[in-house]
Write a structure and sequence with these properties.
Length: 123
Amino acid sequence: MDDADDIYMQSWTGTILGPHNTAFEGKIFQLKLFCGKEYPESPPSVRFQTRINMACVNPETGVVEPSLFPMLTNWRREYTMEDILVKLKKEMMTSHNRKLAQPPEGTEEARADPKRPAKCCVM
């Protein structure tokens, strides 16, 4: 849970540890997941706070583009926040992502929300 005052539990923070033997190795990626009123019938919006170079992520906003991330396009109400994080980590290991050059360390502040502490899941 991202915001203790969010009585509807819509805003979440997730963490993905970069997988071994990839350009993501040794990095910690912070994400925001927001569940709208239609959740769980509709997928949450997912946005990387940490800058990342990945085929399904908009490089300017950090938003995971549903049209490029099949799990969000083919959303099923049984999916969980953990499922999203696990699938994104697997996506990092695919042949078209694993060797992509990554932004330098310390570039996540542009997207960070300093008022909100990081809580939720670590993958």
